[in-house]
Amino acid sequence: MIRSLLSRYLPREQKHALKAVYNGIKSHAIRMLASYTPDQLQAKFRELGIARDDAVLMHASFGRFTGFQGEPKQVLDCLLRCVGPGGHLFMMSMGYTSSAYDYLKAGKPFDVRRTVSRMGIISETFRRRDGVLRSANPLHPVLAWGPKAAWITSGHDQMAHSCGAGSPFEKMLELDTKVLFFDVPFAVLTFAHYLEDRFKDSAPVPVYHPEPLQSLLIDKDGRERRLEMYVYHRDAIERRNFPALHEALTQAGLVKRDRIGNTRLMIVKMADVLQCAERLVDQGTHFYRR
């Protein structure tokens, strides 16, 4: 109530000044009470169950109030040291924050080499890292590091359904990939779109828009190509119930949560998410609101 009153009646300059003071106090408190080092983060990743030779899909946010005493690059360093040279790390690198439909309708080209990732500073830092490959798919481009990175990213430009059968997400399943949520909620799980495609025949709504949309791809060799891609139907987007998946995983004891400093961590296995989705579909519940 106090914040609302201040926001309504104070001049803009005073509101900015108060916000700066508040953020300064908050930052100082976190540094004093909830800060943690890269070494502590690496140890926490290991406690969560991330081990040598693991494959990990990371969804991440990086803010000033996490308490981490380092840079986004060091978060990646910690994780890569855990999985080692035989392991794999994947991240998403979409070039938009709007809907896929609006993105394609806008007609902007997707340059696999240069289009900036809008999935946060850790994702963009990873995109620029040596040895990281990016799949040439305008809708759901995947970043991959590790011995099978080329296999994971290959052929994604040939897919009209960017998260469907044969996509990097299905290949991640073959690697028994774990999904790490770094200060982000379960709702950001991109693997859920693969489940939408896999169980589309039993869905209570049309999963895809009936007509494909065109997209301009600029590939790794700088060549321009026109692609036709299917986006998710508006009805499916509005009726998604991914919290039902989260709840099923939690009830089955398949979600591991922890905290370090002011950062929330969570980890699940893709195979477990798939099994829970299969059970929901078999029960007639699905992961869409009816």
Helix-strand blueprint:
Elements: H1 2-9, H2 12-33, H3 38-48, E1 55-60, H4 72-83, E2 88-92, H5 100-106, E3 110-111, H6 121-127, E4 133-134, E5 142-145, H7 149-153, H8 168-174, E6 178-182, H9 191-198, E7 213-218, E8 224-229, H10 234-239, H11 242-251, E9 256-260, E10 263-269, H12 270-282
Parallel strand pairs: 1-2, 1-6, 3-7
Antiparallel strand pairs: 2-5, 4-5, 6-10, 7-8, 9-10
Helix pairs in contact: 3-4, 4-6, 11-12
Judged by helices, strands and strand pairing, the structural class is alpha/beta
Rg to the nearest angstrom? 20 Å
Q: Kindly, what is the distance between the CA atoms of the first and last residues, rounded to a whole number of angstroms?
A: 37 Å
Q: What count of structural domains?
A: 2
Strand count, sense and barrel status of the largest sheet are:
7 strands, mixed
The shape is globular
Helix content: 40-55%
Order of strands across the biggest sheet? Answer: 4-5-2-1-6-10-9
| Number of E strands | 10
Average residue-wise pLDDT: 91
Q: How much beta, percentage-wise?
A: 15-25%
Could you give the order of the helices and strands?
Answer: HHHEHEHEHEEHHEHEEHHEEH
Contiguous low-pLDDT stretches (5 residues minimum) are: 18-29
- Count of individual helical segments: 12
Task: Give a verbal description of the structure.
The strands form two sheets. A seven-stranded mixed sheet has the order 4-5-2-1-6-10-9. It is α/β, with parallel strands linked by helices and 290 residues long. The protein contains twelve helices and ten strands. Residues 18-29 have low confidence and may be disordered. β9 and β10 (263-269) form a beta hairpin. The protein folds into two domains: 1-33, no CATH class; 36-282, no CATH class.
